[in-house]
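Sample entry (260 residues):
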Amino acid sequence: MPVVTTALPLFPLNSVLFPGLVLPLNIFEQRYRALMRDLLALPEGTPRQFGVVAIRDGREVAPTAVGLPESAEPADADPTAGFGPDPMASFYGIGCIADASTIREKTPGGGEEEDEEEDEAGYEVLATGTTRFRLLSVETGGPYLTAEVEELEEEPGEGAGALASGVLRAFRTYQKRLAGARERTLAAGQELPDDPSVVSYLVAAATVLDTPAKQRLLQAPDTASRLAEELRILRRESAVIGKLPSLPAAELTRRPTSPN
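Predicted structure, serialized as tokens:
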């Protein structure tokens, strides 16, 4: 079958977005303000989609908007600023489509936009990850990066259901070991889903791991493979934490093997 591709605006972050997970953004950089204006201009009812890719280690990120590349360029700067001459080399090859349910324009001071010039406004955005994609190419000719992507179907793999049950048990143990940590984890009493693919992405997002480790989970070939890797990680992390009871849980999460 021929590869079906889609053209999407590209939004690089220094973190990984998983399908089903919510992505809040606070946008001030010119190129991404332009992206939000274009999304807002789409006809009513049209999905406001953009592609999120994780930035590889060693790339600069902006202090004013988490995950965005550093740029001291003027408003009409090259959209590749901060990513070098070959943006493809700056990003991981598998990303996630985000669908923006809310795009709210703000003034630099934080209030609703009224008399300020359009190019002075920032945006508060709430989007949700939907579908994984493979990054095929990056275009640099517009005010922001765009990409040609191939959407990836989620294959269940063999034994995903049984693996999901094991991952949920291991995740509960992991949560208990991290009790008191201020990291982003699921509440111990929260109802967890039954669908193996949803479990795999939810646990991947909530486990304290560095970006390369989360990226490996995102790009797993199927749900079962992702769950099997999560089970190994959760057991390892729980065992390490359990052997170091004298350290506060928040300190454990700062270990080089699993920063977040």
